[in-house]
Amino acid sequence: MKRIFPISLTLTGLLTASLVTFIALALICVKQAVAHTYHSHKPVKPVTMTAEQMSELVNQSTHPDFNEQDLAPIMATLVKLAKEDRITHQERLVYARLLQHQHQFADALAELDTLLAERPDQPSALLLQANVQLNQGQPALARQTCLQLMGQTSELVMATCLLEANMQLSPSTQYYSQLHNISEKFPATSTEIAVWVNEVLADLALFANQPATAIKHIEQQPDSNWPISSWVAWSKAKLALQQGNDILARLAPEIANNPAPNDSALLYLALAEQQTGEGKKWTTAMAQRVFIREQRGDTTHAAEVALYYMHLAAEPRQALHWANINWQQAKSFNDEQLLSKIRQLAAAEG
Q1: pLDDT single digits (tens) 2-61
Q2: Total Cβ atoms within 10 A of residue 175
Q3: Quick one: residue 297, left, alpha or beta (phi over 0 = left, psi -120 to 50 = alpha)?
Q4: All domains of the chain, ordered by start, with CATH?
Q5: What does the longest C-alpha to C-alpha distance in the chain come to?
Q6: Phi, psi (5° rounding) for residue 339?
Q7: CA atoms within 13 A on the CB side of 4
């Protein structure tokens, strides 16, 4: 009989690179008129898209109903434009975001350095730069980047950026109350910022072992606005409260018509199935996804593969293998915690 391993609340979506938690903040500089234009049944034609439309498509890619295969033509177009030195500032920002999404952090930082050298007044680029620095395990540098936002963004945005960096520098439960107080004093000026701040608050609440509080923060916004990272934080809290049925009831319909759903969505639906004992649909789907990743040598979602082997397949040696691969790519606080926990598990298993 397979051994079932407990899910650690410290492994939240807060700083996991593959979830791209910062991406909604790039909406600061995106015209709201282009929002909600994504329809998965329409072919993506980047040659006819404006930079704003490309950016919005990348924003939509953080949602569970998005088919990630639609990003490929945009990436190919931006690579070509960058090589030919015909890329605009807005296109370069989109390019950097896609590079981060693919865990090409050094390349993403190089593009952001070029952009910020020419346009130092772009808060979206600074926010993304800070996030990539966190992905690379450079919280002190990320904190310096966050401080450059002073006078360029709201107090809430800068404070949230700083507290995410502080969380990596010296993890503590105190940051929850600090950010909560700041968010009460300086309310979010847009839905996108509200979603992001509430997600960070939820992650900090999970770190403090307060899953019910985490759920309250995520649910302050309708789930139609949640990126995958918010769904992950919410799902972790639900699993901690033994409410896996809620995950199956609410997240499953979001990906029902998606031919290539996000790995994290599959993972947490499978974990909900495991907790509730209700079928094997999502567990099978996640196993198939892991098999495909392995056959292709695709390590983009190494953290999710490691969690699959840790919690669902109960194969700690394989979990350790993938956690090490993930650590080679991403060195955030959560990536370190994932590797440490799986090392302990593998050692205990002998």
Answers
A1: 444 445 544 443 433 333 344 434 444 433 333 333 444 455 666 678 888 888 888 888
A2: 21
A3: left
A4: 17-349 (1.25.40.10)
A5: 59
A6: -65, -45
A7: 9
Global pTM exceeds 0.85: yes
**3-state SS string for 127-177:** HHHHHHHHHCCCHHHHHHHHHCCCCCCCHHHHHHHHHHHHHHHCCCCHHHH
Structure tokens at 104: 């090409």
Report the 10 Å Cβ neighbour count for 65. 18
Q: Which amino acid is at 263?
A: D
Q: Residues for the chain: how many in total?
A: 350
Q: Are 311 and 5 in contact (CB under 8 A)?
A: yes
The set of residues, in sequence order, having a beta carbon less than 8 Å from that of 196 and lying 6+ positions away, is: 21, 22, 24, 25, 160
CA atoms of 164 and 142, how far apart (whole Å): 9
